[in-house]
Amino acid sequence: MFKLEAEMLKIESGSEELDFGVEHFKKEEIDYFKISIEAEKEIEFPQVSISFFYPFVDIQSAWHPGAGRDKSLAADWEDGFAAKAASLAPVISFLSQNDQNRLSLAYSEAMETVNFKMGVNEESGQLNCRIILFTQPSKKRSSYQAVLRVDSRDIPYYQAIKEISTWYQSLEGYQPTQVPQTAKEPMYSSWYSFHQDLEAAEIEKEAKKAKKFGCEAVIVDDGWQTVDNNRGYAFCGDWEVAEARIPDMKKHVEKIHKLGLKYLLWYSVPFVGIHSKAWQRFKDKLLFYAESRGAGVLDPRYPEVREYLIETYKTAVRDWNLDGLKLDFIDQFAYESESELKVEPEMDIESLDQAVDSLMFDLRKELQQLKPEIMIEFRQKYIGPYMRKYGNIFRVNDCPGDAVTNRVGTIDLRLLAGETAVHSDMLMWDPDDCAASAALQLLNALFAVPQFSMKLSELSQEHLAVADFWLSFWKDHKEVLLEGELKASSPGHLYPLVSSENEEKKIIAVYDQMVIKPGKKLPPELIIVNATLKQELVLDLEEELKNKRLRIYNAVGKLTADKKISLQKGLHKIEVPPSSCIIIK
């Protein structure tokens, strides 16, 4: 069996100013390599690479936080991915076709930029694993330490990733912020239902209906701050309410609160538009200008920029009694090329990564003093372990109407997010679609908190029944869906089967035509969700199910079967409607 030793790690730099050291220790079958880099005086460290080769044995796919629908293996000459506080996480897992971990790597530095370039080496037929440090300008220093965690245990890959999440939580400075209970309840979002064409009265009308369907919060998205409907960001930056949209924000929020709902408001954090009053103040304090957006990206290395943003959000939360903020586009704090990232005398922080961290740290501190239970939503791809310190809701990136991408995104987030609330992208479908097809939007987001974004007042009775049944189903079983033992099979095939269980029940959702193996020692209640348009489920039972009650519900929640059953070990075909569930208890 291959064992990775300290001397196998190759650390290189083009500079002779640096000295390197590697200390290897093992704990509970996991290898840890403490990387030390020293210089005689404080300097801006040049680029450093850490690399090693690993046997390419029984590895068929790769998982990392930004892989999305592409879990394929890369060649070592490909670009890989960059992780930092505001983008992804320095984590990768190579796994077998049987979902067993073969090599899972995590790097302790998740705030500054770390590049993972890992793939198959054509010449050797091995995995070439490379970690590239200091690709961005950072603070001057004379020493640097970090830890590479290497897990090659023969365990399920999802267990390996879950333990990486737990490991990050144990590191100093990585403790996640608290998650209010409302963050784990369904929410209504205005984005797909209204886009920028917002009206306070219409939002209030939809919020009232959403509350009846089980939503506990409303997220008002882009449009509240401008009467422009061109989908750009040229009018962002002042964050004053467009009275033509919402005449009195404080009263509007009060009306939502009286319905029993919390209120979250959207901000595009980095953007300052050319038509904003703030443009003249900040036009020379930008990382770059994006002509397609009609807006510049603020440079948080300037203290004036950070102070302005923090004061803007504090004032809104205090004056309008907001319960949370949807902070968008944090991953846009970036630069177009390294040569453009210059350090100016007015800046108090040289590193962009550290400036973003300083902004988020101070913002979280100030907002929690105003409201300890405040909710902060972040969106893929700023969803790494470092961002769990600041955000308590991680949402899937925009994928309107794409149920499969929503499923992949929610499961990817769940695997690494620990107790942080994971939300689906906002749910929407075609008003003329059939009930079973519409239901797939909800079923593919089953293991995350659903955000709903259709005008309930315009849905047909059949579609209202779909929303009512499956949101009720989710609320009835949310404890096991969100907090049970999650198992997600075959990431390379986009998670065709996902399950979660506790001592009381097990829920299996199947997203493709396949044989379902519920397993042994099943809890008293077994629920199987047919998240396909097929009309049968095939079970391969490893133990007998005696004297059980079988209930089958279709896409709109109609009970289509209710009978006593006893099933022997072996194969069983059960006829079911499309987008349905069976409950065996």
Summarize the structure.
The protein has 585 residues and is of the alpha/beta class.
Could you characterize what this model shows?
The structure is a single chain. With 585 residues, the chain is α/β, with parallel strands linked by helices. The chain contains 11 helices and 32 strands. It has an 8-stranded parallel sheet with strand order 21-20-19-18-14-13-12-22. Strands 23-24-25-27-32-29-30 form a 7-stranded mixed sheet. The protein has a 6-stranded antiparallel sheet with strand order 2-3-11-8-7-5, with helices on one face. A hairpin with a 5-residue loop joins strand 29 and strand 30. Helix 6 (303-320) runs parallel beside helix 7 and helix 9 (435-443) runs parallel beside helix 10. The longest helix is centred in the middle third of the chain and has 19 residues, at 352-370. The protein is flat. The two termini are 45 Å apart.
Task: List key phrases describing it.
8-stranded parallel β-sheet; 585 residues; 7-stranded mixed β-sheet; alpha/beta
Topology:
Elements (H helix, E strand, L loop, with lengths): L9 E4 L4 E10 L2 E14 L4 E7 L6 E3 L17 E3 L7 E5 L5 E7 L6 E7 L6 E7 L7 E11 L5 H14 L16 E3 L1 H4 L5 H13 L4 E4 L28 H10 L3 E7 L2 E3 L4 H5 L3 E5 L4 E4 L4 H18 L3 E5 L23 H19 L4 E5 L13 E3 L7 H14 L4 E3 L11 H9 L7 E2 L8 H16 L1 H6 L1 E4 L8 E5 L3 E6 L4 E2 L8 E6 L5 E6 L3 E9 L5 E9 L2 E6 L4 E5 L1
Parallel strand pairs: 12-13, 12-22, 13-14, 14-18, 18-19, 19-20, 20-21, 25-27, 26-28
Antiparallel strand pairs: 1-4, 2-3, 3-11, 4-10, 5-7, 6-9, 7-8, 8-11, 9-10, 15-17, 16-17, 23-24, 24-25, 27-32, 28-31, 29-30, 29-32
Helix pairs in contact: 6-7, 9-10
